[in-house]
Amino acid sequence: MFENGYFVRAMGIRGLTDGLRATYGITPEQLGLPASVFEHPMTLIPVSVLNQYYENIEQVTGDPDAVLNLVSKLNIEQLGSISRWFFSGHDLASTIRRINFGITCIQSGAYLSGEVVGPIIKWTYRNNSISAPAKAHDGVRVANFMCNVIKRYLGEGFTPDRVCIPGTQQNKIKYERYFGCAIEWGHNQTEVWLPNKVRLAGSKVPSLPAEKLSMSFADLDDYLNMPDSQDHMKVLYEVVNYSRHFGLPTLARVSELLGLSEQQLQRRLQATGLNFTSVVGYVLSGEAVKQIALGIPLEQVARSLGYRNMTSFSRMFKKYRGLTPKQYLANYQMA
């Protein structure tokens, strides 16, 4: 039903965004992303937006190597509570297994795996939802993450035997100097090669106390709330939810994010007995309920959903929930 059915969490690119501001003085809005997207690390961003984001970084900075400059300064522990689970493993092999399994909670369409080839382990990353112009930037970002994970166990002096990256960059020597090894460009996936014998190496970084490894139910719910690309209604829900960061969701914006014309989206909704207005009402009222449960003031909830006044927000909410926001809040507080 929808070709663009993949997402990345805001936490996955927050480091790049912060780095752009600090290094180049560039704000998220200059790259086409409202700042409100990054107020919550779990926000789901369509991968079609990520693809354009990579291209915008190069265009706005005027630096084709900007992504490399930015990822070199990233902290791999900026992924919230899931990073504590990733790095609580007792050796490199267990950490790689956890990351391979857990990556889809952060970015759908992304697949990490390990392959033993004689004395070499190839840690590989594949993501077919990344567009051709963005593949090199995305490959550099993930290869840097992989290498930083490995360095936790093998020390800062670790250099991979080889790095393979999709796409190509002109200043190849700069990338070889950064990674400290030969780089093969034009691959269909990102690969970091390391000796098989080091897979059981212990962490060089002190482990976190066990009591700090727990994850709240809210965090767990958010991490598991990553749409399957074939769950078309869930994909549509999250695309509409993302578009509210620009104001009230419009047919034009949602259609564009899904890679469809307005007419195509309308026809596909009609085929399932839905219309765009009802979908938007369902999504916004659902998000309002979540925010009310978190204790967010009603006026702030209305603004976050794109409403400029409480009257319009209350009218929508009552239509889809049967109560005004104030009535719903009162019932919730009494429960």
Automatic annotation (TrEMBL):
User: Which keywords accompany this UniProt record?
Assistant: DNA-binding, Transcription, Transcription regulation
MF terms from GO for this chain are: DNA-binding transcription factor activity; transcription cis-regulatory region binding
The region annotated as signal peptide is none
Q: Does the keyword DNA-binding apply?
A: yes
Instruction: Read off the Pfam families from this record.
Output: Arabinose_bd, HTH_18
User: What protein name is recorded for this chain?
Assistant: Helix-turn-helix domain-containing protein
* Domain HTH araC/xylS-type: from-to ranges: 250-331
Q: Please, which domain of life does this record's source organism belong to? A: Bacteria
Recorded GO cellular component terms are:
cytosol
